[in-house]
Hints:
mainly alpha; disordered N terminus; 444 residues; globular
Amino acid sequence: MTTSLSQPPIPSFTEMATSLNEIQQAHAHMLKTGYFHDIFAASKLISFATTNPDRQTLSYTHSVFNRIENPNPYTCNAIIRAYANSLSPENALPIFLQMLNGHVFPDKYTFTFMLKACANFGGLKEGMQIHGHALKIGIGCDLFFQNTLIHLYGRTGCIETARYVLDNMPKRDLVSWNAMLSAYVEMGMVDFARDLFNEMEEKNVESWNFMISGYANVGLVEEARKVFAMTPMKNVVSWNALITAYAHASHFKEVLELFEDMQSAQVKPDNCTLVNVLSASARIGALTQGEWVHAYVEKNGIGISGFIATALVDMYSKCGNIEKAMRVFRSASKKDISTWNSIISGLSTHGFGEHALKMFFEMLGQGFEPNEVTFIGILSACSRAGLLNEGRRMFDLMVCLYGIQPSVELYGCMVDLLGRQGLLDEAEELVRMMPLKAGPLVLE
């Protein structure tokens, strides 16, 4: 089949498809011209469509995959790999079984991608079966496969098995050692991680970063700082690991100092860095530093959405500028439940109870489902603003409609609301009815 000058060869056409709409156009073009019946062309479309897919794109691509009459291993591997890296890695399993039942012979890449999928959804049993199958067909000693095997067993808590794989590998590379190092760090086994780290003849930035994170995760901030100081080539991950360590230890002043050092070292911060710095600024009321980060975000074209939006709203609220917090909230290109919770809590703290309620119902109108944090914010808003009836309504809504069982903190919000209205008998009755043991803050 020939193509006209206005129709580029199908590989080039699919390489230009980056969004779902473009992928659909490429698919339609292939169906119209007959290219889709060419297994190579169909495989190219699947491959490029699964490079960095979101849930909707992956779902559509899977439907396209199901229409291929005789998929080859390359096509199957592309969709399996995409699921392994997605939020639904368990969906790789049916495709793997489809390969086996359809007599499409899996290769070492198939097994490696399947191990990664199993690791990401905690499928130890499935991973062990895949391991056994790989041994039967003779690829169990492949370096790439064994490195992923260490990752699977380490990720699912089988640390001794992961170490057994490492110790019995005929050939190991730096990825092998780092996979084991990562497993120790994730399990909080920092002493084992340190011993392995010292045993390694070769290390890279990733190795050093694992050790910084390992110490940070168990609260050994000073040890993390020492490893950081010895790290020969620091990157943004190195800085983030140490900054996060100080943030988790509530050493917020040090977080800001580290951020200044990072700038002096001319290491470009990423979203993780900025969120940590904004959170630290909020905790100690460092408005100037928070405003600098906001300006940096806008100057560098970083989208105000998700974690960044939430951190900015929280920072301005806690630093006393609720008007700026509201402006940031309204300008956010994408909000999640945490962003809504942040603005509701901010309005509550600043005494704008009725505004917080309006924001709550606006959130419901946009399809977001409130969680426990939402109701803590809204009940606190009702309490501070003296909105007794509204507070009672919110409490009933929380339990009856959303099925959220009140925590001690939520009971405390309701007791505070009743107490502020002079309804002490009702407040005491609520405390007696609590299925949870009331702490001193509730009883006060």
